[in-house]
Amino acid sequence: MKVLILLAHPERASFNGGLVDLAAEVMAHAGHEIEIDDLYMEGFDPVERASWYTQRADSRYFAPLTEQRAHHEGNSLPEDVQREIARLEWAELVIFQFPLWWHAQPAILKGWFDRVLVYGGLYSGRMRYNHGYFRGKRAICSVTTGSPEHTFMPFGRAGNMVEWLWPIQSSLYYVGYDVLAPQVNYGVQGGGLAYQKEGEFKEHLKAAKKAWAARLTGLENESAIPFTGWDDWDADGVLKASHPMRWRL
Ligand SMILES: Cc1cc2nc3c(=O)[nH]c(=O)nc-3n(C[C@H](O)[C@H](O)[C@H](O)COP(=O)(O)O)c2cc1C
């Protein structure tokens, strides 16, 4: 399998960076082809703006979707966006490795979605969800948090991980990926707010790496998160009244 590992962390020697190295090593050992995409190292600029678009479809009013579509059709998307799209087209599995920052992915990765998943190319009105461009390919978020696991339990102060990851995971499904259950490593907090004694913390990180290594080689065969699709929705895009998952408020 062709595996793209995308890292969104400003420090390559971080725990997140270590998880990338581990994934690359384990997957390569299992016979997969690996490419690492380190957004910070490559200096990826995550801010969508008018100046990216050289041959504007509308020079008076900047509508990102209009320009994305026109530049995709004209084969004139920014070079870095073309490079990222080529990587996605190559990969059969994409691993998104990032720390939870303010209950979401770091801004560099949010902006990567804004700029790289271009309208008119990687999605359109018809080419979405289970009819998405990347259908048949797999994606997984490997996330670290500072707060410990129990604080993410129901009524816990750190909130609900299913909600925090909904925007990124549903965006991946939107462009057609089979999204695997995330790998969440809680309580990865050295320095600053420390939650464990140093020895315990080291063991905790070691166990986290061991669990990730054990899971990685099975990713090819794991079942994806079940999302609803076009056959499940009515003309308004709402779950059909007859759908077995439908319940009344
Ligand atoms: C800007 C910023 C925001 C953060 N927000 C959260 C958060 O919302 N929830 C959380 O549990 N940890 C949060 N953290 C802690 C990081 O998730 C944690 O430091 C990271 O997962 C540790 O991995 P690393 O050592 O590879 O950086 C935040 C850290 C930073 C720098």
- In CATH's first tier, which class applies? Alpha Beta
How much of the sequence lies in strands comes to 5-15%
Mean pLDDT: 96
Give the beta-strand count: 6
- Total of helices: 6
What is the straight-line distance between the termini? 44 Å
Number of domains: 1
Bound molecules: flavin mononucleotide
Report the sheet with the most strands, covering strand number, pairing sense and barrel closure. 6 strands, parallel
CATH superfamily: Flavodoxin domain
The succession of helices and strands, N to C, reads EHEHHEHEHEEH
Structural class: alpha/beta
**Shape from CA axes?**
globular
Percent of residues in helices: 25-40%
Radius of gyration: 19 Å
SSE map:
Layout: E1 2-7, H1 15-29, E2 33-38, H2 64-73, H3 79-90, E3 93-99, H4 107-116, E4 138-144, H5 161-174, E5 178-179, E6 183-185, H6 198-216
Helix pairs in contact: 1-6
The protein binds flavin mononucleotide (FMN).
Flavin mononucleotide is lined by residues 9, 14-16, 99-103, 144-147, 158, 188-189.
Structure in a nutshell:
Helix content is 32%, strand content 12%. It is an alpha/beta fold. α1 (15-29) runs parallel beside α6.
Explain the overall architecture.
With about 250 residues, the protein is α/β, with parallel strands linked by helices. It has a single domain, classed as 3-Layer(aba) Sandwich (Rossmann fold), CATH 3.40.50.360. The protein contains 6 helices and 6 strands. Strands 1, 2, 3, 4, 5 and 6 form a 6-stranded parallel β-sheet that branches. The protein is globular and about 60 Å long. The structure holds flavin mononucleotide (FMN).
